[in-house]
């Protein structure tokens, strides 16, 4: 039997932890290592084990199929679950925010050299921030096929990465409806000509109309713009005005 007065000095305390262990039932003896490290260390160990839940990052897309060269908008949500303010910033040559994108063959897609650097971001405890990012402005995702996309955050305070779930988006072509090449008015841009193309793509529940602007001579596609849903009956009408600007009636 252990009396309370034998625990009066640190030396006695240390000795009697060993003694008490022999008298504990087997189940309680399993917790003896925790008794030795003390409440503070137990709390720190628990904190370390739950550190993976401190920042939550989610990624979403409006749809899972896109036309080559159209804006590919990803919605990124970052939730601060750390219980305190966090400062997200670049550190030690590592950008705090980025994406990992692979092709259907598992090949990583490198970002374009002109990709903009994300400025630092401070998020209050419990706060959720949302941003929309055009992946086509950051990565050359123009080849047809499926791409695996996930976002990541580097938290410099913990020297740790946090990842979103992986989403799959598909890049496809579209059916050409109409096309015309026109000259470029003085001061309107580089090159000698622009080619306008009207395209349509059938989704499971609707058909969408697109216009593409490109330089056929150099092979540069500037952008594919969505004009919205196409009318079920009849083809859209396209016309070029005196300034060589395109007008479409759907």
Please count the beta strands (DSSP E, at least 2 residues each). Answer: 16
Query: What is the number of helices?
Result: 3
Shape: elongated
Largest β-sheet summary: 5 strands, mixed
Average of per-residue pLDDT values: 78
Explain this structure to me?
There is one protein chain. The chain has 250 residues and is mainly β. It folds into three domains: 7-49, no CATH class; 53-171, Immunoglobulin-like (Sandwich), CATH 2.60.40.2970; 174-249, no CATH class. The protein contains three helices and 16 strands. It has helices at residues 10-23, 26-29, 32-49; strands at 55-61, 65-67, 73-80, 86-88, 97-103, 121-123, 128-134, 145-155, 160-163, 167-172, 175-183, 193-202, 207-215, 220-229, 237-240, 246-249. It starts with 9 loop residues before the first helix and ends with a strand.
